[in-house]
Automatic annotation (TrEMBL):
Superkingdom per UniProt: Bacteria
Gene3D superfamilies according to UniProt: Rieske [2Fe-2S] iron-sulphur domain (2.102.10.10)
Transmembrane segments: none
UniProt name for this protein: Non-heme iron oxygenase ferredoxin subunit
Keywords: 2Fe-2S, Iron, Iron-sulfur, Metal-binding
Domain Rieske: 4-109
One GO MF term attached to the UniProt entry: monooxygenase activity
Entry-linked PROSITE patterns: RIESKE (PS51296)
InterPro entries associated with the record: Rieske_2Fe-2S (IPR017941), Rieske_2Fe-2S_sf (IPR036922)
Length: 117
C-alpha cells in the first residue's frame, strides 16, 4: 500500500502534535502521533509511549540543541521524532516511526513501511 492521507497540514501547527488513525494494508487501524517541528517538518510515530499507556499525540513538542522531540505527558520521557528513540528515562525502548510526505496541504504517512531503531 502507498502512503495514506493522515491529516491536513493546516491542522498541525508548528510545535504541536496530534493523534490520528490510519488503516494499514492488512486492515488494522494504527494510532499515530503526528508531530510538526518548529521548522515545519512533520514526523509520524506510534502514538502509544513505549513506557506505558499514554498518547504521545497529547505530548509537548520541544526542540533542544537542534533535536526535536515529543515529551510523554505521563512521566516525561522525550522521544527523538526522527528516530523514535527515548532521550531519557523512564522509557528505555524506542517507538516505531513512519515515513511522511507532504502533498500540497495533505500529510501522507506510509504505515506499511515502519522504521524500527
Ligand atoms: S508512560 Fe510515557 S514515560 Fe511513562
Amino acid at each position: 500500500m502507498t502512503a495514506q492521507s493522515a491529516a491536513f497540514l493546516d491542522d498541525l501547527a508548528p510545535g504541536s502534535a496530534m493523534t490520528v488513525s490510519v488503516t494499514a494494508a492488512d486492515g488494522s487501524d494504527l494510532l499515530l502521533a503526528l508531530v510538526r517541528a518548529q521548522d515545519g517538518s512533520v514526523y509520524a510515530l506510534d502514538d502509544e509511549c513505549s513506557h506505558g499507556r499514554a498518547s504521545l499525540g497529547d505530548g509537548d513538542v520541544l526542540t533542544e540543541r537542534g533535536v526535536c522531540s515529543v515529551e510523554c505527558w505521563k512521566h516525561g520521557s522525550r522521544f527523538d521524532v526522527t528516530t523514535g528513540r527515548p532521550l531519557g528515562p523512564p522509557a528505555s525502548q524506542p517507538v516505531t516511526t513512519y515515513p511522511v510526505t507532504i502533498d500540497g496541504e495533505i500529510v501522507l504517512v506510509d504505515v506499511d513501511s515502519p522504521v524500527r531503531t
